[in-house]
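so i finally got all the pieces together for this one. its two components total, 489 residues if u count the protein bits. some of the lines might not be protein, just check the labels. i wanna see the whole assembly predicted at once instead of chain by chain like last time, that was a mess tbh
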Amino acid sequence: MSNPGNLKYTDSHEWVKTEADGTITIGITQHAQELLGDMVFVEAPAAGRKLKAREECAVVESVKAAADVYAPVSGEVVAANSALDSSPEDINNDPYGAWIFKMRPDHAADVSALMDATAYQAHVDSEAH
Amino acid sequence: MTTLKQTPLNAAHREMGAKMVDFGGWDMPVNYGSQIDEHHQVRNDCGMFDVCHMRVVDIKGNGVRAFLRYLLANNADKITLPGKALYSVMLRPDGGVIDDLIIYFMTERWFRVVVNAGTADKDIAWMKQQAGTHAPGLTITSRDDLAMVAIQGPNARAKVWQVLPHTQTSTQGLQGFQAADCGEYFVARTGYTGEDGFEVMLPKEKVETFWYALNSAGVKPIGLGARDTLRLEAGMNLYGQDMDESVGPLESGLAWTVDLKSARDFIGKSALLANPPARKLVGLVLLDRGVLRGHQQVHTAHGAGEITSGSFSPTLEKSIALARVPNGVQNGDTVQVAIRDKMLAARVVKYPFARNGKAV
């Protein structure tokens, strides 16, 4: 599976989708879910929480390991995906559909400055060496 | 950077789509897809594990039984039927655990020992040192010419017989913890999953053919990830996590393997008798949402403890753990586990958690 071209990416393996209303939706990439393996627990941040860019704000746990999820930009959490409470494996099955939380970014420009799909793929390739 | 050691099945794992990881210096498969599917595959049908990294050691000569009686905490005198196996720990004089291992009685001049991969060189050095003092006539041989595959699950034995029909006559009557020497194939009804099955030792150059033949018979490869959740559900200790040289067997849930009743002396015995255990190993089931992991701190009414092994149990669909806690903690107690910035409730339970396909 390739990384969708309409999304932005972080070096900590989150994907970021800008919605029509200016909010952003965040999940973890195909590469990240593949590294972690079968997901069994997701803890998303509560709506209303203010986050700084790169702040640890969610946790995804596979059978194998726990991994932090970071805020891609500064802003406020507006929603968390409660469906993942009962089916965390959605992240394995559909990493770009199974979003973890949504934010309203403080500055839309911060989102534009994130990596595009090509730059992210180069980042993944560089980590493999 | 050091080069990882490879088993003779390395190419086969890659061919079968394994994700490979560094496991104690060995390049080993962690899974071939979904670790949870692999776990259920073993509980419900059967799967095969590459355990070639484990070491087979043959101890031969006059007086081998007497030597093992002194070397090990369990009593070699318990096994008198040829092929019978015994689980034991090997202790330091201070009672710390050097390794856990299985010994097979073959003849009064031959016992076979299977030890962990990461400790094999240390174990053999210790055995040779002790033999040098107490049994200089024995030969202790690391069988680096042998490979080992574990086939586990309710249908495992039938699949092995399908692939190795000539072994069926001599292995179909084997009880649990018993082995048969079938020429090139040494077949033991043992394992590390809580399921029925065999561990087969065979010449290294034949293992890849055996592996593919099992696969053609419908036996799926299982990685180290599922091996860990299977053994944890079955309540089996993992050396280096649930016990090591810094802790004794009586504080590691291994009292059942330590024979303190017989009059014989063994290495570590006086230390065990002089230091009654203050802690014990218990099972935990997490009541809140989350995943228990090794080294998380456990808070109990009787003092602090620590998780030694923790994971998600695919059979129970809950998180489970083994934890070392003060002796006063009882089954049924609720304890608190520190997970990141939270304290989560867990129940203390008797383990194993699951065996023979089901939660227990």
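Chain B has a mean pLDDT of 97.
Chain B has nine helices and 21 strands.
anyway lmk what u think
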